[in-house]
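Archive record
______________

***
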Amino acid sequence: MFCGIVCAEPISGWHPSARDYFTVPGVGQNTGDISVPIVPQAAPSQSHAAEMNMSSSVTSESLGTIQTEGATEARILVRYNTSEVSALADVQIEGVALQQDLGDALPGLALFSTKGRNEDEAIKALSSLPGVLYAEPDYIVSVDNTPNDPEFWRQWGLSNNGQVYREGIPPGTTGSDGKFLNAWDISTSSGDVIVAVLDTGVDYTHPELAPNMWIGPSGEHGYNVITDTPDPMDDFGHGTHCAGIIGASGNNGIGITGAAWKTKIMAVKAIGSNGKAYISDIIKGIEYAAANHADIISCSFGGGDYSQSLYDAISGSHALFICAAGNNGMNNDQKPYYPASYTLSNIIGVASTAADDTLFPSSNYGTSVHLAAPGGHIYSTMITRPGGNRYAYLNGTSQATALVAGMSALVLDKDADLTPQNIRTLFIENSDKIPALNGKVAANGRVNLTAVMNLFLEKDEIVLKSGWNFVSVPRPLAAGSDTAMIFAKVSSGGHSVLEYINPDGWKPLKGSDLITIMTGYWVYSTKDDTVPLKYKNSPEPVRKYIKSGWNTYGLPSKESIAAKTALNSIQSIWKYVVGYDSSLQKYDTPIMNGGQGDQDDDRMLRPFQGYWLYSAGNGEISG
């Protein structure tokens, strides 16, 4: 891993993505055998978005309500005490007939239909039968409407650096995303965790979803409750959109990425092509998901009527239910919205935020709503639209719910012993506190996946991806664990650990060379790996001297900090800072200094990441 002499790492060995922003130095910039860093050029502007044909006929009409049917036939759910009554098949009530025994979905539950009889009268008559626990209408619920994936810039909910994320819409606020980038350095896969999308179905042929579809014992990808077949193909689009948010295949060179790059999506179609579903069908969908060991059930639907049957089905399940808070702009504390408003320990109710870290205008809210997550103008997969487009923007708590479902899958994979209530508590306690969301949700802020995932790191470590990694340490290392020997076990493929020293050039490190904070190191690994770190108990302040030209830099903090804040002491001289995404093997877009006192680039620097820092003069940074 180490080299005892100073030798150059050839420019040709750098990943080809460097050419997006860098070129080989010109004449006079090489000294002997020492190569200087490749130099940044202006990054391509993302204003090219307006030139891209990404129009969609799907918009933000997504309000979810309970509605009553005007049909002459009514449907009534009846639950009886199975210890007192074996069945209700012999019910003799005029105009009332048993339609289906739902005992497999929920013990003692049955569906009755009425003809020519008032629904309220039928419910009263059924309720009076011996052994009946309750009878209620079969309510109708409605839907609530840095990978190398080329459309990732549209996904502000995953990474928001203030970019334009949709044509004709103002840019968002830097940092108002769900904090995915650092979390993905810890994990991008939810392993064997199964996420059931209880919705309008999923287009399991979509190239972004096909690799991540759950496969059942007969090769099926789920179940269609409505047709009682193993074909859960989406005929509305809502379920496909939510599935993409949860787990569109990441880093595959096309389209977008989901919260989990690799996952297992179980499609459960219980909602029809009109965006509506009977409670009885929802319950049958829950039963299918439970029977096939779904760990998480994403529920982007709801309404205002309390259903005891649905409550019983959810309370009897071991799964975690992520539920939309609703899109009526209402306070759920005053007017509950179900199932999100059920007071059950295995439910997480989710409100929707906008790209400026405020509550999305149509989102329901209230202290009974647990979390807030990005949900406005969310770009995701879609069933094929006119013209062949298979992506679209949608708004709503449905989208926020799907995002939290994907996040929960990543968390559950890190610790399979977590209960649904444990996961809910982790997200509440580790949300970013946002003034605009104070009192709007129990978390008083917006979800932060990185903060939660960091809890599963038993000790601090540098996370390496296969290929080149540009890394740093956030605090001074403990004696005996503060040399380049910390990288000795990394499978380097014959490459040295490299440090760049201004103006001398590249220095391959020896095992005895110290690893210092605020310095970037290039490390090559042939596989995903980690490097454990041990810190000094009481570190002293450290100063880094910045020289005119190119320097390497690392954040002296375990928390992300805006570049203009971290580099404030050299505000008048620094020009660019450029990171390298090892997950994508690609340089980040350079962060530019807007000038003295008038910076408007609020992008963050991340701990453990190395950076190129270009300065127009000499200066000093403390850490």
Q: What stands out?
A: Residues 104 and 287 are 7 Å apart (CA to CA).
